[in-house]
Specification:
About 65% of the residues lie in helices and about 0% in strands. The protein is mainly α. Helix 2 runs parallel beside helix 4 and helix 4 packs parallel to helix 6.
Amino acid sequence: MNLPPALLADLHAPNVRDRDAAAEQLGDLLRRPSLTQNETETAVTCLLTAAINDPDDAVRESALNAIGNASERRDLPLHLVAALAPCLHTMTAPLLEHALGILGSTRDPDAHPMIEPYRQHPMDYVREAAAMALAELPDHNTPAATDHNM
């Protein structure tokens, strides 16, 4: 196993610095090809919990960065990261920027309604992130998108 269980456990450490360091180290691991798809998805699931529930924004941002690293190396299915969607409206603009990119990187047309509302966000860079995320998604009218929704 290439995914150290202690690193996953450190995402729940009492000390903010330890949680943040764990998320950053997981991000480094997720950049490498050594993890299997299953290990990647396990790490992403743990990081997603931190990204949504951690009270510290620095930890949340490190967790989202790490998930973004995973999405650059592997295909992450929407169902794996969809838990971000109900939390988007509570995120600060920098966190929202990362989360929108993650949803777009799934290339799943079902992410469209999760991302679309943020094209009207008051912050320019969040609107830009939403537009870029939407550009990653297949057009709703393409055969692939239609077949996916059947």
